[in-house]
Design a protein that fits this description.
Length: about 375
């Protein structure tokens, strides 16, 4: 673009001086409203359930969970690996449990980070285990967040990981990188027998029956990877956190094969309560739209051990991705290959940055108009 004259630069600076107070005021107000809405949310009461969640929960285009159907998924039969480091497959000698009023959350230390690392084909980089938590229902046919052909499972476990490109879960959530987090979702179905891998967590729940701010240490061995099903066939898609503020930063992996949970183990989850003593149950968000999204079903997934530091990685994961093939075609036209700058896929509509720029420009002109109007009114008096 040709450079602008001095007069234009002065105009721009004056424009900013005039409009900055309005912008600052509006941003502060917006932040306060967002906090007010985000602080109080729930699943089962009309005044605060999922339909009232604000921000990206309402405006997002890649929200989670979703319903998996034959129609909205693309099946792939090529061999794909999920790799876990040695620590991931070892039992931890203790863990921490918390009842936060929305779910039962497990982490391995006081901080939500760990030495458990996974990667795999099409992930692009490795992910660090942060925490796991559950969603469960009041009846056998509901409770999971994701559904299959419209049918729910009694519960769903989420193993939350963040990209090793970031220092913390919080940083990864705040980046707006659509692959900042990797969450593994596991369905549960009622069985006559206990799930032994789940039992340490079931015992821990009895120690946090009521919501508390504190984490409780549990000295029972827990093997996180034993919670995975043997058959790793999975759905994968780009989506969001399923709780406010619903950030679209998650590459989702949901396993098709459900793992067992006995009735008494399910009862333990249903016995937990919030600070008011109200049962925590049906703590799932309903499925969201999959319009304009690709959802893959990977039929041939194998589990492997990830090489440790210093070990030769003879067959590193495929960094390239079928997701990016379409994206690359778009990028090569635009002269950019940075995935982080193209977080919303290859849709032909305007990007988020363009929308924000247009909105900001509109806002600035509106502010100037108001300023002129106010000045005119006072001068008229
Ligand atoms: Zn969850």
């Amino acid at each position: 673009m040709p450079s602008q004259g001095k007069g234009n630069r002065l105009d721009a600076s004056a424009m900013m001086r005039l409009t900055l107070p309005y912008i600052v005021f509006t941003l502060i107000c917006a932040k306060n409203f967002a906090n007010a809405a985000g602080d109080h949310w729930c699943y089962t009461q009309e005044e605060c359930d999922a339909h009232t969640w604000s921000g990206e929960c309402q405006t997002g285009k890649q929200q989670s969970p979703i319903d998996f159907t034959q129609k909205n998924t693309i099946q792939r039969n090529d061999a794909v690996r999920l790799r876990f480091n040695r620590k991931y497959s070892d039992a931890q000698d203790h863990f921490m449990v918390k009842n936060n009023g929305h779910t039962i959350q497990i982490q391995l230390g006081n901080d939500i980070t760990s030495d458990l690392v996974m990667d795999g084909d099409y992930f692009k980089g490795s992910y660090r285990f942060s925490q796991l938590h559950f969603h469960w229902g009041s009846h056998e046919d509901k409770g999971s967040e994701h559904t299959v052909n419209g049918n729910g499972y009694v519960a769903e476990l989420h193993l939350v990981h963040y990209s090793n490109d970031y220092k913390s879960l919080k940083e990864a959530v705040g980046t707006k990188n659509r692959r900042g987090l990797a969450v593994l979702g596991i369905f549960f179905e009622i069985s006559n027998e206990d799930n032994h891998a789940l039992q340490p967590i079931v015992e821990a729940i009895s120690r946090v029956k009521r919501q508390e701010d504190d984490l409780v240490r549990v000295d029972i061995p827990l093997n996180v990877s034993a919670l995975l099903p043997n058959d790793l066939s999975l759905w994968r898609y780009y989506g969001s956190l399923t709780t406010p503020s619903c950030n679209e930063v998650v590459v989702w992996t949901v396993f098709k094969k459900a793992v067992p949970i006995s009735r008494s183990q399910w009862e333990a989850f249903k016995a937990s309560a919030d600070t008011k003593g109200k049962s925590i149950v049906d703590n799932y968000r309903p499925p969201q739209s999959t319009i304009n999204r690709k959802v893959y079903f990977l039929n041939n997934v194998n589990r492997e051990r990830m090489p440790e530091a210093g070990e030769d990685d003879r067959s590193p994961p495929l960094a390239d991705s079928f997701y990016e093939n379409a994206q690359r075609a778009v990028n090569s036209k635009a002269g950019s290959s940075d995935d982080k700058n193209n977080q919303h896929g290859s849709n032909s509509g305007p990007g988020r940055a363009e929308v924000v720029n247009s909105a900001l420009t509109g806002f600035i002109f509106l502010s100037i108009f108001l300023q002129v109007l106010i000045t005119t009114v006072f001068k008229c008096r």
